[in-house]
Every structure is written in C-alpha cells, then in structure tokens.
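Repro:
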Amino acid sequence: MPPGFQDEGLHAAVRLRETRPRLPVLVLSQYVQRRYVADLLDSGDGTGVGYLLKDRVGQVEEFVDALLKVADGGTVVDPEVVRQLLRRRRDPLERLTPREREVLALIAEGRSNGAIARELVVSEAAVGKHISGILTKLDLPPADETHRRVLAVLAFLRA
C-alpha cells in the first residue's frame, strides 16, 4: 500500500478497527508480519477480522468464502500465518539448514558475501541464496526502516 509499500496497510487496518470496532477487515499481505497479526486479531470487538497471504487470492472460491465469513463477523487466519505464529515459540534458528547457520555465523563475524564465498568455497550467488533462505526462515521481509542482515545476526546472537 502506498506510499512506502511496506506495512501501511496493516497500520491502517489496526487503526480502522480501533476507531470502528465492528468494522469487518480482511488484510491481504505478501508476508506474515507477526507483530501486526496479533494486534489485528485483538483489535475491535474481536469479530469480523482476517489475515490472508496474497497468494490465497488466486484460489477464488476460498478467498470469497473468507471474505464472506469476515463480513458476517467471523475470523479467518491463513494456515501459513498460524504455522509461522506457532513456529515462533521455538528457536528461530531451528528452521535453518546447517549451511545457513554457517553462513549466518560468518555474517555475524562481519564478513561480506565475497569473503563468505571464499571461506566456504562456493559462489557469491550461492551465498546470496543462503542469505535469502535465512531471511525468509527468520521472517525478515524487506523493510526500509530495518537492515535485515543485522536483524538476522541479532537472532543468531540471541539463540
């Protein structure tokens, strides 16, 4: 959603529910934004709310069913959102492969992609793919206000 194409839509949905608690709201998001899912589901009077990932829109019947359910006061949460919310309770690094953990450890040492590639004797493209996997598995979608590599290192240091 403009202007920043980041999380403005989620902010707007939560604010709308704060000012109009019975307003049915169904959020479609590219990523699971865990910090907003709980806010959205807790917003308003607890009825008529949903959070789906955008790829569900392609399944037209399921999407229409979800839209009608929310409009009727029900709650709809994408199964992938539920999985990721439940996964959060575990160590986030459990989702990483051994190679991804190795790459993340080298990032934590301050190494560049080129230095990591030389250390692991792989291409820089391979390192990039590992980093992409790390960021995805740690639920770190692109955002202007944060540096995802730093957030990944913080998760590594906490674990």
